[in-house]
Amino acid sequence: MAGTPFERHAIKELDLEIPSGSFVSILGQTGSGKSTLIQLIAGLLEPTSGTIQVGPYTLKQGGKQSADVRKHVGIVFQYPEHQLFEETVAKDIAFGPRNQGLTEKEIKKRVEMALEWVGLPSSFADRSPFQLSGGQMRRVALAGVLALAPDILILDEPTAGLDPQGKMDLLTLIHRLHRDQNMTVILVTHDMNEAAKYADYLFVLADGTCRLHGSPSEVFQKQKQLTALALDLPEITRLIHQLNQKVHPPIPTDLFTIDQLESYLLERLRKVENV
Amino acid sequence: MKPIIRLQDVWFQYPGTQHQQNDWVLSEVNLSIDSGEYIAIIGPNGSGKSTLARLLNGLLVPSKGEVWVAGLSTQDEKMLWQVRRTVGMIFQNPDNQIVATTVRDDVAFGLENLGIPRSEMVERITDALSAVGLTGMEEVAPHYLSGGQKQRLSIAGVMAMQPQVIVFDESTSMLDPQGRKDVLALIHSLHQNGTTVIHITHSAEEAFLAERIIVMAEGQIQLDCPRDELYSQALCLQRWGLEVPLAVQLHHRLRKKGVPLSAQVKSNDDLVNQLCTLLSKD
């Protein structure tokens, strides 16, 4: 609403670079500009000023390339299962590819591919999406985006509302797609454990600009800054910090899985025994 | 003392599914909740947690069996009003719980329905907004609030009605870390002030803040025990695909590898202390 009393910059003076084929996570409080940022990258919003380069395309105010960008960027919004609408799973997944003007044969191939990618059996194709469980509905919605064969996959809090098992299954699936299909993944999340475990690189937004960025170990070392931005540390990092109040020399804080922490502690205890 | 809520052999199925014999969302649920308790209910998606929550204030009534709230059966339609005054609910999505155009009016909505006199209403609104930290925002339109603020506004609306029991149905799952912390702090202070709190959640970290934990799966209560008792044997939560506290997982793994830790771990701090002792043995 530029030029009105309600004008407000959701994003300002933001510079960031996401390497092709990487898995990055965007963190930040509600209202920090995360959703605006992903809509800019996906070509759904135009920047008021500045430019966004997505592969060979440039997005800018009044630019003409957003339609091209949208062919390469798939975006999965929050609670995507609310957007399911077709009679059958196959028809719902086919909606996007059909809009892209693909042939029926190609559409059929894409639907099969997408179902396989999200780990649903092909027998689901003829079922109604509304009679599936919450976790299955979310997979169908994800399949609808994957059927567009995007190079960049953006997910806005994809695990919200799922139970722990459902969360892990979904993220494992996304991570596998990233690895096997060399898909660039941009994950928006409030869950620091997810960001630490799956992303190679993190961007922390606050008030519409990028305040912190780096690998998970670089970002999660900056405990004070994160607390000031009202963000948490991953559970495992908090446990290590707690141990480090009494343990010298300190335990490294770049251990983000329980396997890593376990082997480190075993190694270290072995040394203590031998002294 | 009589329990504030009692479920007696409760079975439930959604209308229209009766022809399917085995389609029970809940079966054989027996549960007794005393006034002032702080209970967490955990369970995988589809385990019947939210259905159970809706039975507690008469939004749903059991297909078989009975739910008693403060001595009143929820089957008795004449008593539903009183039942709902006793048990307040906070849902997952704050956007679905806000009705008015300003923060003050939103809190006033429930009180108007209860016919509270104006002078008392003003006092209750002031108190509730101050308890949730929204003092000074009385004239703000709710859609300008953040998710966490909206959820605190929903809580203020329920608090102002002074129910004896408040059920939080995954009320933190859509919030950012700060919003989550704020709501958990509010739950804690409600409990301190004597309100009975029932918190449905997917997070082990949140569940273990309660005094008593109930595990639901396949429409039945699988476990119902005090927090400390469940903590030391929390590995069993894996059976239902639920989260096991990190300290319990680590303790189990290290002990399996022969690290001389105590047979059971009581809390995060307990594990930290034991590990520190071992690591600084030289």
TrEMBL record, chain A:
Bilayer topology term: Peripheral membrane protein
Presence of keyword Chaperone: no
Record-annotated ABC transporter domain positions: 1-232
Coiled coil ranges: none
Enzyme Commission number(s): 7.-.-.-
Subcellular location field: Cell membrane
Keywords: ATP-binding, Cell membrane, Membrane, Nucleotide-binding, Translocase, Transport
Molecular-function annotations in GO: ATP binding; ATP hydrolysis activity; ATPase-coupled transmembrane transporter activity; cobalt ion transmembrane transporter activity
Enzyme class: translocase
Gene Ontology CC terms, in alphabetical order: ATP-binding cassette (ABC) transporter complex
SMART domains per record: AAA (SM00382)
Membership in a protein family: Belongs to the ABC transporter superfamily. Energy-coupling factor EcfA family.
PANTHER family in UniProt: ENERGY-COUPLING FACTOR TRANSPORTER ATP-BINDING PROTEIN ECFA2, HEAVY METAL TRANSPORTER
Functional description taken from the UniProt entry: ATP-binding (A) component of a common energy-coupling factor (ECF) ABC-transporter complex.
Quaternary structure (record): Forms a stable energy-coupling factor (ECF) transporter complex composed of 2 membrane-embedded substrate-binding proteins (S component), 2 ATP-binding proteins (A component) and 2 transmembrane proteins (T component).
Protein name, per record: Energy-coupling factor transporter ATP-binding protein EcfA2
TrEMBL record, chain B:
Subcellular location, record wording: Cell membrane
Entry keywords, A to Z: ATP-binding, Cell membrane, Membrane, Nucleotide-binding, Translocase, Transport
UniProt KW Plastid keyword: no
Domain of life where this protein originates: Bacteria
UniProt key word Cell membrane: yes
GO MF annotation: an example: ATPase-coupled transmembrane transporter activity
Pfam families given in the database record: ABC_tran
PROSITE patterns named in the record: ABC_TRANSPORTER_1 (PS00211), ABC_TRANSPORTER_2 (PS50893)
SUPFAM superfamilies linked to this entry: P-loop containing nucleoside triphosphate hydrolases (SSF52540)
One GO location term (cellular component): ATP-binding cassette (ABC) transporter complex
Membrane topology reported for the UniProt record: Peripheral membrane protein
Domain ABC transporter positions: 5-243
Membrane-crossing segments per the record: none
PANTHER family, per the entry: ENERGY-COUPLING FACTOR TRANSPORTER ATP-BINDING PROTEIN ECFA1, HEAVY METAL TRANSPORTER
Family the UniProt entry places it in: Belongs to the ABC transporter superfamily.
Protein name stated in the entry: Energy-coupling factor transport system ATP-binding protein
The species this protein was found in: Thermoflavimicrobium dichotomicum
